[in-house]
Amino acid sequence: MSAVTLAVHPGALGDVLLAVPALRALRAASAAPLVLAAQPRIGGLLETLGVVDRAVDFDGLGLDALFVDEAGRQPRLPDVAGMVCWFGARDPVFARRLRALVRGAVVAPSVGEGPTVWMHLLTTVGAPDGAWCTALEAPEGLRADGVKALAGAGFEGPRPWLIVHPGAGSAAKCWPAEAFARVVTTLAARRRLNVIVHVGPADEAAAAALRRHLGAGVAWLTSPTLPTLAGVLAEATVYLGNDSGVSHLAAALGVPSLVLFDPRHLAWRSWASGTRARAVTLTDAVPREIAAVLAELESML
Length: 301
Known about the structure:
Elements: E1 4-8, H1 13-17, H2 20-29, E2 34-38, H3 40-48, E3 54-57, E4 80-85, H4 92-101, E5 106-107, H5 117-124, H6 140-152, E6 161-165, H7 177-191, E7 194-199, H8 204-211, E8 218-222, H9 226-234, E9 238-242, H10 245-252, E10 257-261, E11 275-279, H11 287-300
Helix pairs in contact: 2-5, 6-9, 7-8, 7-11
């Protein structure tokens, strides 16, 4: 097999999606195929979306061998022409051993000191000017799977569609259900929107709270596969969600999106031009913030 350019990012979905501009720049700068080592479902999605040429399981590389002194243990790397590793940079032993193993390897933290995480990642690859922040395109097969998933959830209405994701990786990142419900019901009534609520494996509490505030006429899409979710999101008219991997996916796919953040976490906002980040109070449903979110979503339609 010919040599490859290897990018390593074992982070969660949102963190890896913030690396899309850097991955694009890295791919454009090398004649070798770009291989991403990541969590399998995330790497597979980026391969399907055409961001990288191939994805491999991060755990299969055995990079943990570089943290310890054990005779006979070595990473299992492919033939590497170039490498960027957004993992292990804060451990000087790991970084030194990887650079000794792969000449010219870039070992950088996945989060930097700059204004946004994605700009930091782009800087680590020494990216020249380029169109690194255009929206990803979901293949027609993914879109078809998304439409089928919606039909299976009992939703076959025409567009426009408002897709809502009330959960996040941490309950501390979630806007109150009451606030979501007031925005969703008001916007749906004013603009005749069909509402789809996505519920992932970690969103049961947030979804249960939202159900108590929403009436009939809402479709609930529960735990689709990641590619199917991408197909669903690609068909959305507008999206509302918390700071989460799902929100980053909607943004990356070019869906007009409003993502709600803890003010301290705005550095994790998306690179996508059609996405707006708004800092909100996550511990209370503040009326003026609800009105501002509603107004901003209306301006996006």
